[in-house]
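Action item from last meeting closed. Structure (331 res):
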């Protein structure tokens, strides 16, 4: 596997999906997908094998050894099978922004379009925000695929603007739409919970990973959640904080319940913003909202990500039960 000199991590993983530096062996698959989907690409001519070989040899291969490449392209894999390719193009190293590019296997578009876009974007955010420390990524898209906007919205991209009649496809003019996502690591905002946050908290609470890590793993129904949420809003011993990026997209929550003179911590990160180290940041910010006190966390043994987060925050593992560990921090 070739490596990008500008990255100190090369492989990014979510479950059975991976982003790896673009593989030479995937070039003809990519060629076919681009030719199949030429209608939405800034590609004027049908690609041939000789053109593709030339592009990989003269352009792609040179990016690996550059400290500040013009583009960073990856193969998007599921169990080592390439389902798409994409990454960052038009990298601006001074202003720390880049355009997102992604083309998936044409056969996947009908059933898995939004799902695969979301996974790809979640992995790409790790590359661009955590390891490159870029400020912003954006998309430039012909207004031809409405499902793309669903994926971008779910992944925390904000609509920024429309260029009317800006591209010509099949002798007809179409608009171009811009969407963007700003790095939440450097622009994280905290606020108190509002009544209208009930829906997003309900969605987060039923996220499969959240349910696996909860002590009661059963799915929560809406009526039970809404009753619980209304009670929490009235509970003076409960504080819920919502965290957003600069564009106002919610990325996580921390709940502090005051029990037996200690603050018990519950937190979760939006599934499309995981892998960025936000857990540590939101817990730290929530603790800073309390003048002083003792903070507790109960974490299942299998939840290694949270165990690591609390240890990195200076929590002490004070006791251990059959299925979970108790952590404590005194401020």
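Sequence:
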């Amino acid at each position: 596997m070739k490596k990008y000199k500008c990255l100190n991590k090369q492989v990014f993983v979510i479950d059975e999906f991976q982003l790896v530096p673009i593989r030479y062996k995937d070039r003809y698959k990519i060629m076919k997908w681009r030719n199949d989907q030429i209608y939405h690409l800034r590609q004027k001519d049908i690609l041939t094998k000789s053109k593709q070989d030339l592009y990989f040899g003269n352009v792609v291969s040179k990016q690996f050894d550059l400290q500040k490449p013009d583009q960073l392209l990856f193969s998007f894999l599921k169990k080592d099978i390439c389902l798409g390719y994409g990454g960052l193009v038009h990298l601006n190293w001074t202003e720390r922004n880049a355009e997102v590019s992604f083309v998936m296997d044409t056969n996947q578009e009908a059933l898995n379009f939004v799902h695969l876009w979301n996974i790809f974007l979640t992995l790409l955010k790790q590359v661009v925000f955590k390891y490159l420390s870029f400020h912003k990524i954006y998309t430039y898209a012909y207004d031809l695929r409405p499902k793309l906007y669903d994926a971008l919205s779910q992944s925390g991209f904000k609509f920024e603007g429309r260029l009317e009649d800006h591209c010509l496809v099949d002798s007809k003019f179409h608009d171009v739409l811009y969407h963007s996502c700003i790095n939440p690591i450097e622009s994280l905002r905290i606020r108190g919970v509002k009544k209208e946050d009930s829906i997003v908290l309900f969605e987060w609470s039923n996220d499969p990973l959240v349910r696996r890590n909860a002590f009661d793993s059963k799915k929560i129904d809406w009526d039970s959640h809404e009753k619980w949420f209304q009670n929490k809003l009235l509970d003076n011993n409960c504080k819920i904080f919502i965290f957003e990026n600069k564009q106002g997209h919610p990325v996580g929550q921390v709940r502090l319940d005051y029990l037996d003179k200690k603050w018990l911590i519950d937190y979760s990160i939006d599934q499309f913003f995981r892998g960025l180290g936000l857990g540590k940041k939101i817990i730290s910010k929530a603790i800073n909202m309390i003048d002083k006190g003792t903070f507790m966390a109960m974490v299942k043994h299998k939840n290694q990500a949270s165990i690591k987060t609390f240890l990195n925050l200076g929590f002490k593992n004070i006791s251990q039960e059959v299925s979970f560990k108790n952590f404590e921090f005194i401020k």
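Note appended to the action item: The chain has two domains: 12-182, 189-330.
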